[in-house]
Amino acid sequence: MSTDAGKRAAAEAALQYVEKGAILGVGTGSTVNAFIALLAKEPGRVRAAVSSSEASTRLLEDAGIEVMDLNNAGPLDLYVDGADESNRHLSLIKGGGGALTREKIVAGASRTFVCIADDTKLVGTLGAFPLPVEVIPMARSFVAREIVKRIGGQPELREGFTSDNGNVILDVRNLEIAEPVKVERTLNDIPGVVTNGLFAIRGADVLLLGGADGVQTLKA
Ligand code: 5RP
Fold first, then answer.
1. Is the pTM of this model over 0.90?
2. Domain 131-196, what architecture?
3. How many CB atoms lie within 10 A of CB 208?
């Protein structure tokens, strides 16, 4: 099975968590795009969505789904999003698409986070995928030096990329993240860091992994 087919299978499995008429938190990325395409085929299935990126907002609106400001939506029952890596504790690396800050906000505002991915995203130890860190532009070089001092790795500026919040991303290569909660907190303590792509303090509650054997469900 291709990774694309795995993503589609996981997206389809996520539909069972969507209550009719819900206001749904929606993530960003190709797996989520497959999920939005499925929602588009079921008009009225959700009342509205809170989006984690301008890209997802466009797709949701094209699908005829109203996009609400989180400030007007209140707490959300469900957030559906992809991941770049997950371990078996459902701690994630996210932000390959650069939407990590809004994704972390919407995940934090949601009672249940269902993560959808193809099964190649499941790893023993997080860190083979470069860890994204969103940074206020003036702090870029300072934050890069502090990252090396505090956790090691090799921060690299994501060239030609500005986040939806007007910030830059440092991708940190060559990490082996044995203690994701500790690393998430350590990075967030650096002045100038907006947030980082570790979702460990608030990881996923359910991980749906699409692969050749169907969809595997892991729970935190
Ligand atoms: C975007 C993300 C995505 O969820 C992550 O990059 C996975 O993307 P895809 O579904 O395309 O593999 O965190 O910021």
1. yes
2. 2-Layer Sandwich (3.30)
3. 24
pLDDT of 1 over the 80 cut: no
Task: From the CA of 31, give the closest atom in ligand 1.
Answer: 10
Spell out the domain ranges in the chain.
3-123+201-219, 131-196
Whole-angstrom distance, CA of residue 177 vs CA of residue 142: 22
CA of 30 to the centre of ligand 1 (A): 7
User: How far is ligand 1, taken at its centre, from the CA of residue 97, in Å?
Assistant: 5
Residues 6+ apart with CB under 8 A from 159: none
- Which of these is catalytic: 19, 54, 103, 176? 103
Q: Where are the alpha helices (DSSP H) in the chain?
A: 3-14, 30-40, 54-62, 70-73, 100-108, 140-151, 180-188
Per-residue pLDDT of 68-109, as tens digits, reads 999 999 999 999 999 999 999 999 999 999 999 999 999 999
Residues in contact with ligand 1 by the CB-under-6-Å rule are 27-31, 81-84, 94-100, 103
CATH class assigned to 3-123+201-219: alpha beta
